[in-house]
Amino acid sequence: MLDHRAFLTNPEHVLAGLKRRGIDAALAQQLVGLADRRRLAIQKVEGLRRDLNEQSAALQQKAKAGDTGGLEAARGKLKAQKTEIKESEDAQTSAEDALAELMLRVPNLPQDTVPDGADAVNNRVERVVGEPRHFDFAPKAHWDLGESLGIIDFERAAKISGARFAVMRGLGARLERALFTFMLDLAREHGYTEIMPPILVRPEAMVGAGQYPKFEGESFETQGREFVLIPTSEVPLVNLHRDEILDEEALPVRYTAYSPCFRREAGAAGKDTRGLIRQHQFNKVELVSFTTPEASNDEHERLTGNAEEVLRRLELPYRVMTLCTGDLGFASTKTYDLEVWLPGQNTYREISSCSNCGDFQARRAQIRYRPKDEGKKGKARLVHTLNGSALAIGRTLVAVLENGQQADGSVRVPKALVPYLGTDVITK
Q1: Marked catalytic residue, from 350, 381, 410, 412
Q2: Per-residue pLDDT tens for 38-47?
Q3: Which of 92, 254, 264, 382 is the right S-S partner for 362, CB 3.0 to 4.6 Å?
Q4: What CATH code would you report for 120-426?
């Protein structure tokens, strides 16, 4: 959530940032108006309370002086002032509620280094790592490979659960387990503390992470909306420190978690209906960092590098993209997408998004830290939060199958995975 005070102290900067995100000018001006309405309401209440205190003091003086005539009039005025204060406080609450509700629906502001653009076409290539392999045969897509090897079963998954589900069997199931174990071990190498979080969270945790209200309707919820199945373990990881004040000396705090993730994919009708790319249920290893504002850009580069290391060790060609303003996630101020080469589809596909959310999530979840040079009584500041997939396991499995396929239909396993899988080749 943005700081509503910025709409009053630096409106030109905020309005320019929202314009870059494609926010309608009328909505932006409405936010400025609500922020000003809240400010005026607070000032009025504070002024009335000062007057009330002065009148109360005057009333006491009249009582001490025995001024019975003036006393009755003063009491009447005092009663009228209390009524006016109550009405003004109600107006203040109304202004604050309207502003808070609207602010929850406003995206984060993009950094200056984020390119402008309407959609993914305007994303910027930062670097390309590794050369796509040349095949002397026509490479297959992973759905054909998986079914011919007997390791992915889409038909039985559809019988059990419907479309956008998969059953992994034999070496397919073992490969998925090998991937997330390898990723967690690598994350620990990079200094992340492993967490096993709940996969059911309360709706307020979704608000804190910036998922609600923007993405309501795209998640799976229990009856009565008591719990939400997490769309990513970023949600519980960010909320670990909700309503807490951390010590600056403890920062950065870095967490990693493996979890199943659940998404309705409501906005993806007709897209990627075959295979593992876009599933209602998938597994992922997530990285989340909490740090100071001064260190967040460096932490963003570090976290992205940690996710890239997974691809490097798996010998997968990939590229790093900076997302443009039109493709930027709701809570993000800057995002790098890692896109892996998929020869069966002859294209790069996103396999990780590494985002700097600034203080956007921290303001929603009230996650703060106390600067070490200000002592225990110093004013707490909002942390900056960062997150990234390292990696989406289903998509990584797709990349391993398609890039490692051989002419005889078998798949060569990357060396880094052999100790986890127990074999260097997957055959039927």
Answers
A1: 350
A2: 889 899 988 8
A3: 382
A4: 3.30.930.10
